[in-house]
Amino acid sequence: MLRAIVGVLGAVAALVPEKTIERFERVALEESGDRHLEPRARTAVRVEGILTVGASLLGGATFAGLMKLTGAFGAVLLLFPGRYQRLAGRLLYGDPEAVEWSDAFADRVRLVGVIYLLLVARALGRDRKNDRREANGESVEKTTARSSLRSVSPRGRR
User: Fold this and answer.
1) How far apart are CA 118 and CA 134, in angstroms?
2) Domain count, the chain
3) Transmembrane region positions (predicted)?
4) Is 151 in contact with 143 (CB distance < 8 Å)?
5) Is the pTM higher than 0.90?
């Protein structure tokens, strides 16, 4: 289920990067302020969406890697929201000094970081639980982040 949700979110980002950026801006920025979005921002959001869809479709180790990267990113958001804000300003806007960030931005970013970490812990925890079951000879449904690729690869066939 998580893979499907992540895949849909990736597809939305890939298909409508402008809307994705607009939603980010509604949450992250004050209404006032003169800002110029860098052209590369739309391309970066689209590429991120495509890679997310690809990892979601492939599943297995690819999706597990995406989840680990998401966890690392979640930790950065939780622990260093100011650094993320400065980085996002430089990557998204031609003049990051002209961007007026919302007063609640740091709290919102930390919340996103916590959500990312919880999702990753759930996904990878399920993998570990299923690995233990397999080691004990129990039957395990192949729907976890790593197991779906093993079930279709030549090495993973049983």
Assistant:
1) 24
2) 1
3) 47-80
4) no
5) no
Q: pLDDT tens digits, residue range 51-103?
A: 999 999 999 899 989 999 999 999 999 999 999 999 999 888 888 888 889 99
Model confidence over 7-45: pLDDT tens digits? 999 999 999 999 999 999 988 998 755 678 888 999 999
Residue at 72 is within a domain: yes
Whole domain around residue 118: which residue ranges?
2-152
φ, ψ (nearest 5 deg) of residue 74: -60, -40
